[in-house]
């Protein structure tokens, strides 16, 4: 009896044929406003395209019941102005809200999350599905920022389906993915250009034969005085510079050689921790909206193992923040 009950529940579950169908949505917004809680109107995004699914939805059925869930990592951040907001991992500046279109005879948008919403087909729809191909999206400024803020290839929602409202579907049939950028008028530029380069020249592999996390032996620290000029930011404004890195461990930027890393620090050699909004170098703009700050860097051993000879490179991004 128990096995029969499990089989019956599974029969109502719809699942992807292979991998879930992915809708990639793009959103670009140039905002004249830049303050916490500001949100532009809903943006309609449409990718089109249909998909087929397996399980109970493989053939035409009476109704399909859709469940919407926020992608893992997104955390609820309150509800206001008809929007359910979510904080986004690794983005300190933006929140996201979304509504997903249910096709069939329902033809309406619903917030994420939702549970078991019927497409109201009553047996009249084909088994080619389009739910998830249209979304309404809103971004909200969580923290005032400089320049641009990005959501890159970010999964924001999952669509599940079942042939019964009482079933709990186990596999997403659709992934809703977002590439978004919001640009604000406030901007800053460095006097050295877009790239701040620390070139250590030729370093012997033996220099990294130290304990993991320690500086490479016999390599001098490079110090750079970075000039900065800002636009549409008040004179005497306090700002800060911090480090954003894709590949890092603790406070080490990992290079394309996994045994070799680099650290970035302030004038007192306090090391910046990547992707930590509380690890920064503060500075104040002068009357001409200009300033400067010191950056220091040196190579370190990531693993304590001697690296293979050859060129190495690492990269990060200096983020300018309001204080």
From TrEMBL:
GO terms classed as biological process: cell adhesion involved in single-species biofilm formation
The record, for Gene3D superfamilies, names: Fimbrial-type adhesion domain (2.60.40.1090)
This chain belongs to the protein called: Fimbrial protein
Q: Which domain of life is it from?
A: Bacteria
Where is this protein found?
Fimbrium
InterPro entries assigned: Adhesion_dom_fimbrial, Adhesion_dom_fimbrial_sf, Adhesion_dom_sf, Bact_Fimbrial_Adh_Pro
Which intervals hold domain Fimbrial-type adhesion?
181-323
User: Is Isomerase tagged as a keyword?
Assistant: no
